[in-house]
Amino acid sequence: MTGNHTDKTISRRRALAVTGGTVAAGGLVAAGFQSAFADTADTTTDADATASASSTSGACMTLMTSVTEGPYYLDGALVRKDITEGKAGVPLTLRLTVVDATDGCTPVKGAAVEIWHCDAWGYYSGYTTANPGGSAPAESEEGDSANDLTYLRGYQVANANGVVKFETIFPGWYTPRTCHIHVKVHTGGEKEDGTYEGGKVNYTGQLFFADDIAEEIFTLDPYAKHTGSYTVLADDMVYDGGGAASGLLTLKAVHKKDPSKGYKGSLTLGVDPDAESTGAGSGGTPPSGAPTGAPPSDSPSPSASASS
Predict the structure, then answer these.
(1) Which of 29, 147, 158, 195 is most deeply packed, by most CB within 10 A?
(2) pTM beyond cutoff 0.85
(3) Model confidence over 259-274: pLDDT tens digits?
(4) pLDDT confidence bin for 282, thresholds 50/70/90
């Protein structure tokens, strides 16, 4: 660990203190997904969600600044709503609204939103031998049926109100980063052979989670099997403290007294549909001790980006 990262050791003892006992990984998937992934949120219309995209003052939100895409990007993610592939973890329903920040926050219909993130132990598909830091079981020990090249990656295409939804799990963490989800917004391409081809990337960013919620989640199984020093938001090398404009998600617990039931996360992404992002935005280079590893020889080639 570098000196600017707070030591937050996640322990099974704390898990017992917070939750009254550990929660089995299988139980999380079986019991939590049904409630967290139900489309009950759809009772609030997409039009209502779009209307709330603008600030309460009536002014359009500021344009979001692109940051690094990180070293774990892979081309060819699948167009799909559920990206879990059986990965164990706390359910997360993610609802993102893409608006044109240069034109009164009007919805960007047809924008392709791409996300990717690590599993509960800090491993990315395509890089399953990369060390997440701290002490974690090998990714292969999870015993799931996930495809090692595609899990926790996917696209969704925005509807007329600029809205996309994903079903996933709460990400884990890896040294030296805080908990996060990577995101890109594409326009001008089209769905082809199960993925999204062509067009350009308008925005490359990362989505972040409040420290108190993340740290509580990490006391639960299977997250608790990864121990070590967790980086809080204030010490992260990418998050700049700007709140929602910098990617901080609004999170709502499915069950207030039981975090294992999952969360609903939402955010409005203000982009410029005419701009192009190279994925080489701010965020610096990873300090020594950052995860290392390479994709399997039969996987797509990763991006050349050198940042976390």
Answers:
(1) 158
(2) no
(3) 999 999 999 999 999 9
(4) very low
* CB atoms inside a 10 Å sphere around CB 9: 10
How many angstroms separate the CA atoms of 177 and 291, rounded?
Answer: 10
User: Three-class SS string for the chain?
Assistant: CCCCCCCCECCHHHHHHHHCCCCCHHHHHHHHHHHHCCHHHHHCCHHHHHHCCCCCCCCCCCCCCCEECCCCCECCCCECCECCCCCCCCEEEEEEEEEECCCCCEECCCCEEEEECCCCCCCCCCCCCCCCCCECCCHHHHCCCCCCCCCCEEEEECCCCCEEEEEEECCCCCCCCCCEEEEEEEEEEEEECCEEEEEEEEEEEEEECCHHHHHHHCCCCCHHHCECECCCHHHCCCCCCCHHHHCECEEEECCCCCHHHCEEEEEEEEECCCCCCCCECECCCCCCCCCCCCCCCCCCCECCCCCC
Q: What's the 3-state SS for 228-294?
A: CECCCHHHCCCCCCCHHHHCECEEEECCCCCHHHCEEEEEEEEECCCCCCCCECECCCCCCCCCCCC
The answer, yes or no, to whether residue 72 has pLDDT greater than 90, is: yes
The model's pLDDT over 210-257, given as tens digits with 9 standing for 90+, comes to 999 999 999 999 999 999 999 999 999 999 999 999 999 999 999 989
Nearest CA to 108 among 273, 276, 249, 274? Answer: 273
φ, ψ at 225 (rounded to 5°): -75, -10
Q: Is the peptide bond before 176 cis (omega within 30 degrees of 0)?
A: yes
The overall average pLDDT reported for the chain is: 79
Compare 170 and 38 and report the one with higher pLDDT: 170
Burial of 192 (0-12, 13-18, 19+ CB in 10 A): exposed
